[in-house]
Specification:
- The structure is a single chain.
- The protein is built from five helices and 14 strands.
- The chain is an alpha+beta fold.
- It has two domains: 143 residues, Sulfate adenylyltransferase (Roll), CATH 3.10.400; 45 residues.
- The strands form four sheets. A five-stranded mixed β-sheet has the order 1-6-11-14-2, with helices on one face.
- The longest helix is centred in the last third of the chain and has 12 residues.
- The chain is globular, with a radius of gyration of 21 Å.
């Protein structure tokens, strides 16, 4: 079993802690002009494979050198960077980190920005920091409070997501009040989790060139939460 870091924004950190988020979709980063109508899967040895139905005779391994953006020249088979089924992810999130405490409690202390009511945790390590904010990307592994066991991995286009999967992504139902004459009665229309996921996806990935309309290939990682520090 291996452990891998994974970043989430504040909203998704809270959803994971609450047990509402059990899936995450991450852009693979493929050059989609070379795979317009293919089917994708992960082989038994963890390599990304594609085939073009229905005339294809079989699955082919995909290499970074022939299927990634032009700047990449690595002729290596593509594997999920988040690990395989059975591996663990440790959640990186924004923290306040410092050195303090008294007696046996003296050590490096962490407070988690996205769950401030959670009590401060002290870890005895050799690193001494002045109290300061650390973004999720700079959170050290020993500060992690949430570990996730990978239960399934697959590949698909992001627009293939179902309403049930959108809910498992930790999104809240998209609710509006309409028409206007219903507002006084407090009547709301629940549009489900799908629109909320699209909005979330756009806020994170559109500026990276992988907006919803691009329909990129994604890793779909399913997990269950572990809490070794509770």
């Amino acid at each position: 079993m291996k452990e891998h870091p994974i970043l989430m924004n504040g909203e998704m950190v809270v959803a994971t802690l609450d047990g509402r988020k059990t899936q995450t979709r991450r852009v693979i980063g493929l050059n989609m002009t070379t795979l317009p109508n293919h089917e994708g899967r992960i082989s038994d040895n963890g390599v990304l494979q594609f085939r073009c139905p229905p005339q294809s005779i079989g699955w082919s391994d995909i290499f970074w050198g022939n299927c990634s953006p032009p700047k990449s020249k690595h002729n290596k088979p593509i594997k999920c960077p988040y690990g395989q089924v059975g591996d663990r992810l440790y959640l990186q999130e924004p923290i306040s980190i410092g050195f303090g405490g008294m007696g046996k409690e003296l050590g490096t202390q962490f407070r988690y920005i996205n769950n401030p009511e959670d009590k401060m945790r002290t870890v005895h390590v050799s690193h001494n920091y002045s109290h300061s904010y650390r973004p999720a990307s700079r959170m050290p592994k020993y500060a992690a409070r949430t570990f996730l066991e990978i239960t399934a991995i697959r590949v698909e286009r992001v627009q293939d997501i179902s309403e049930g999967d959108a809910k498992a992504e930790g999104t809240s139902p998209y609710i509006t009040i309409a028409p206007e004459d219903w507002a006084e009665a407090g009547i709301e229309i629940n549009h489900g989790h799908f629109p909320s996921f699209v909005t979330l996806w756009e806020s994170i990935n559109k500026k990276r060139g992988y907006g919803w309309e691009k329909n990129p290939w994604v890793w779909v990682v399913e997990f269950k939460k572990e809490n070794p520090h509770e």
